[in-house]
Amino acid sequence: MSIGLLTAVTFLPALGALALTAVPRRLVEAHRAAGLGVTLLTLAVSLPLWFRFDGDSADMQFEELHRWLPSLGAGYHVGIDGISLLLVLLTTFLTPLALASAWHAIEDRTKEFVITMLLLETGMLGVFVSLDLFLFFVFWEAMLIPMYLVIGVWGGGNRIYAAVKFVLYTMVGSALMLVAILALYYQHGAATGIYTFDLTTLVRWVMPPGAGQSLMFLAFALAFAIKVPLFPFHTWLPDAHVEAPTAGSVILAGVLLKMGTYGFLRFCLPLFPDASVAFAPLVFALAVIGIVYGAFVSTVQPDLKKLVAYSSVSHLGFVMLGLFTLNQQGVVGGVIQMINHGLSTGALFLMVGMIYERRHTRLIADFGGLWKVVPAFSAMFLVVTLSSVGLPGLNGFVGEFLVLVGAFQVSGVLAAVATTGIIFAAVYLLWMYQRVAFGEIAHEENRRLSDLTPREWAVLVPVLVFIVWIGVYPSVFTGKTEATIAALLAQVESKAAVALVR
Amino acid sequence: MSTVWLIPAFPLAGALTNIFFGRSTGHRAHWIAVPALGASFLFACAVAARVWSGAPFTTTLGAWIVAGDFETGITAYVDNLSAVMLLVVTGVGFLIHLYSVGYMHGDPGYARFFAYLNLFVFSMTMLVLAGNFLLLYVFWEAVGLCSYLLIGFWYTRDSAANAGKKAFIVNRVGDFGFGLGVMWLWTELGTLDYAAVFKGAATLSPATATGIALLLFMGACGKSAQLPLHTWLPDAMEGPTPVSALIHAATMVTAGVYMVARSHALFERSGSALEVVAWVGTATAVFAATIGLVQTDIKRVLAYSTISQLGYMFAAVGVGAYVAGIFHLVTHAFFKALLFLGAGSVIHGLHGEQDLRKMGGLASKMPITATTMWIGGLGLAGAPLLAGFFSKDEILGAALGTEHLGIFTLLLAGAFMTAFYTFRLLFLAFSGAPRMPRDVLQQAHESPWVMTGPLLMLSVLTVVAGFALGLPLDGSRFAHLLASVFHPHEGEHASVVVLLSLVVFGAGGLLAFYMYRQSAVKPEAIGQPRTWVHALLLNAWYVDWIYDRLIVQPIYVLSVALAQVFDVGVIDGIVNGLGRAVSAWGAGLRRLQTGYVVNYALTMLAGAVVVVAFFLAR
Predict the structure, then answer these.
(1) Do the chains contact at B68 and A473, CB–CB below 8 Å?
(2) Is the peptide bond preceding residue B8 cis, with omega within 30 degrees of 0?
(3) Is B561 exposed, middle or buried (0-12, 13-18, 19+ CB in 10 A)?
(4) How confident is the model over A447-471, as pLDDT tens digits?
């Protein structure tokens, strides 16, 4: 049995984790270095995916199919298209940065931490490459455990509450999703005689519209909506972010939230096209409420991490709005915005973590005048903040604008309400930035802060490169995913149309 | 690749150099920034010469945002209008860069200042070059960013940081409309390229064209500080004075006028949108002038004057006199930049004093500054034969010629006020007895040549621009130059217009002379509200106060309520309530069991039974 590239990428971190179990725990530095090494190796191995991926093709690429549980109809089936390609690379890109950011931040149980993070990476990658519902569900659930540990073991003061809340929220969604997966499995089996969890087979089947499809859509949608998080399922997020260590927040915001939006794209749209169309107005409503609500609530947060967490609710609202416009501009914008949010918010959390390491506080009121003391930090923080504001020339603008163009084709009013988000984003982010970096130094403790270290530069510069790159030359990235999205939209359209004819 | 790209490339390279190597360039940063602008200006001249003798052209650097049939490129469109704008931006920009060498000397953020200033010129030239609405939008926001950075340049001052933030946010309110206009445009026409849009404008229904045009104009109101989005510009005076001259007088704030003129095909398709533009411009022109009458801060007088003069430009393009609007844009760039730089020179000479009440008698201390500022002031007030005289008369003539009598009358009243507040400023600053403390007076000095040089250059431009461009009166050289962009417009050059504008110029000047040169108003009474009208004007019609109570405070209170009551209490309350209910139920169950594992296994079993039973029963 040959090992394919995708399998190698997915399981390299887990393999590394396994190897690390044999290394004595007192070799703290060795664990850190090895963890970083393994994730960097994974990144290196994942790069050929990008270069060898044919952006003109909408087919699954790098596919691998092995017998796994034939009696159940579940197989080991992995592959990527233009959407999952970007998310796989985002994951392999962000994980080493998260580990590097935790170099000094995690002093306690370093060995366990590194192993947990490596397992987490395998879980996340598994979610993005699975083309079998059973396999997908296994990864989906498996990834919960390391994230639970990251928050619950290495988190802040109220970490247990946050970790349990995170897990319970997610479990409620996934329990319903499991029921829906089984229902889909049996319905498809009953209709075609083939009992399988294989996604590529399932999506070819045109499910009759009706209550059954709607219920399954809702069950999947709830699981994903919690993950996104879509308003009003978002209240686990601020708690989880505030308590999680920096590395956890980066991964949580950067990658985990994307599993929700990815789930909508990969499963809800193609499997339940009629329900997706029918429920689109509901999603639109929740998405734009989230955009405005997230912004309002962010404005008055006293804690930097909470502010960034609520800003995610606003930003992810744009993504959901884009995906359900079901037109090329909206969906491409949504996908790019998923990547953008991973980079911008990931970077925001990294930088909040850096300042937290120095001052052991995240309260905005404890800062002020930082530009005078740490100009390099402040300048980088400004760029990252502006990327989150959606300033043209940086990445955020490209995604937001395409989403809004897509939304405008659905309804001008919808686009207008969503566009108010760009005003409010400027309000809460610039006000936050002003209170952190401008003004006179209000607290004596801040006078002795040290500016960015070489390690921190090394963590930030790669993110900054992509923030600018996507802003200036986005077609490199949209080009890989355009064909996939066009095919997906055609599929949704034709299936919904076929179902209507019946 | 076209040489056109070199015009923005030089300032961009300068900005990047001073950003990345600011520590090394330090107080020598101008050796990079100023030559970069010089080179940019030379290439702008070359491009202007080429396009004036040839034809408009388009050049594309590459694709930018592509998604399905949404395709936009990094495209430059160069015609006579863009050439005029490029010359103003790089030419005046060069002089202001030069001036900044003296003005910003010794500032700890010297390299940062020049980096931002170069970045602004890069963005502004790109805005002018943009060949499609998306690129226009991008650099529309980019100049806003530079404005934000430069207003808040002295970031340790809270007032500066607040002003920068306010400018950005108010502009974003305008850009909200601008963005929607661009989206609507694409949804209707499937393209954002200028040529295709202006050709396709004819196919739009007048209602749609009105909607799109007004949304775009909303952006112009933000960028060009027109009612009701004007409130950021007076605060923007917190920035260093060269910034006020370059960004908040000569170039960036005129972007809205440029955009409307550029999109005239779209606005004309609507018709009623142009009326709105004309009336908003007129209202702003008068409104801001009334506030300018009573300001005591030298820069604030000029700021309200700028808002007012921008109103004249919008009134011009609104009545269809695009050439007059752009002409006034150009002459205003000269004399207002001159006035701001002159004000900067005064402030520099008085070590930071901006209050007109503490000036006076400076003509002997700084003769070059006084002389050049008088020239700039006369240009602004509409003194015969200077630049502003020609361009303002063209606007008044156009308003009369298109039978906009109301607009004509109001603009004439505005011209009277303009003359008054300009002379008031000049008398208060340069004439009479000095009103500053003795030590300040003794140290007051003329600025170095690097600052007075640009003042002299701009004075020359203010004197000659009217003759050079505004003649002959029936079909000026400037109108001829722009004939390929705007279809010819028949202006009214009735001698009655010239006569009336001379009358208001003289009346305004004399009144100011009587009140401030003859000291009919005691200096200590200046800025003290005596009547409610005076108080109203001193407080800028209380617009900021109203916005604060009507918009800012309610949103803040709502946000607090959402964050502290709704989110934590209601939504999370439900979640936690559910959690407690489930755990209470679980605790009840647990009493039946001896251990967690058994409990868990039993739950799994029960679940499995239910699932299997469900499917067997079907």
Answers:
(1) no
(2) no
(3) middle
(4) 888 899 999 999 999 999 999 999 9
What is the reported pTM?
0.92
What is the arithmetic mean of pLDDT over A40-67?
92
Q: A335 pLDDT band (50/70/90 cuts)?
A: very high
A340 contacts on B by Cβ (under 8 Å) = none
B100: closest CA among B241, B6, B208? Answer: B241
**Residue A297: closest C-alpha in chain B:** B563
Contact at 8 Å (CB) between B447 and B345? Answer: yes
The reply to whether omega before B472 is within 30° of 0 (cis) is yes
Nearest to A127 by CA among A242, A240, A17, A6: A6
Distances (CA, A) of B584 to A237, B578, B593: 24, 10, 15
Residues 104-163 of A with CB under 8 A from B: none
Answer yes or no: is pLDDT of A340 > 50. Answer: yes
Burial code (b: 16+ CB inside 10 Å, e: under 16) for A185-205 equals bebbeeeeeeebbbbebbbee
Q: Identity (one letter) of the amino acid at B53?
A: S
Q: Which residues lie closer than 8 Å to B428 by C-beta, 6 or more apart?
A: B356, B357, B359, B360, B516, B526
Q: Which residues of B touch A473 (CB under 8 A)?
A: 62, 64
> Which token pair is B515?
């009140």
Q: Kindly provide the ipTM of the predicted complex, given to two decimals.
A: 0.91
CA dist A446 and A219 (Å) reads: 49
Say what percent of chain B tops pLDDT 70. 93
Task: Give how far Cα A278 sits from Cα of A184, A268, A272, Å.
Answer: 19, 12, 10
CB B446 within 8 A of CB B366: yes
Which residue of B110, B126, B155 to mutate against A (max A Cβ within 10 Å)? B155
**pLDDT tens across A370-390, in order?**
998 999 999 999 999 999 999
Q: Out of A300, A369, A427, whose CB is closest to B156? A: A369
Residue boundaries of the structural domains of chain A:
275-502
pLDDT confidence of B476, banded at 50, 70, 90? confident
Which residues, 6+ apart, have CB-to-CB distance to B198 below 8 Å? B263, B265, B266
Name the token pair of B284.
Answer: 């702003």
Range list of H helices, A326-374: 328-359, 370-373
Say which residues have a Cβ less than 8 Å from residue B15's Cβ, sequence separation at least 6: B33, B115, B116, B118, B119, B122
Q: How far apart are CA A405 and CA A178, in angstroms?
A: 35
- What confidence tens digit (pLDDT) does each residue in B233-264 have? 999 999 999 999 999 988 999 999 999 999 99
Is the CB of B180 less than 8 angstroms away from the CB of A409? Answer: no
Nearest-by-Cβ selection for A329 from B68, B148, B563: B68
Task: Tell me which H or E stretch contains B66.
Answer: strand B57-67
Residues 388-417, chain A, touching B (beta carbon < 8 A): 391-393, 397-398, 401-402, 404-405, 408-409, 412, 415-416
> Residues B328, B287: contact at Cβ < 8 Å?
no
* Chain A residues 434-473 within an 8 A CB cutoff of chain B: 434, 437-440, 473
Q: Which of A393, A439, A475 sits opposite B63 (nearest CB)?
A: A475
A130-148 pLDDT, tens per residue? 999 999 999 998 888 899 8
CB atoms within 10 A of CB A152: 18
Residue/partner pairs of A189-192 with CB below 8 Å, 24 or more apart: A189/A73
- In 3D space, the residue among A84, A114, A85 whose CA is nearest the CA of residue A17 turns out to be A114
Task: Using CB atoms, pick whichever of B66, B148, B183 lies closest to residue A404.
Answer: B183
To the nearest whole Å, the CA of A332 is away from the closest chain B CA by 6
Question: How far is A378 from A434, CA to CA, in rounded Å?
Answer: 10
Given a contact cutoff of 8 angstroms between Cβ atoms, the answer to whether A96 and A151 are in contact is: no
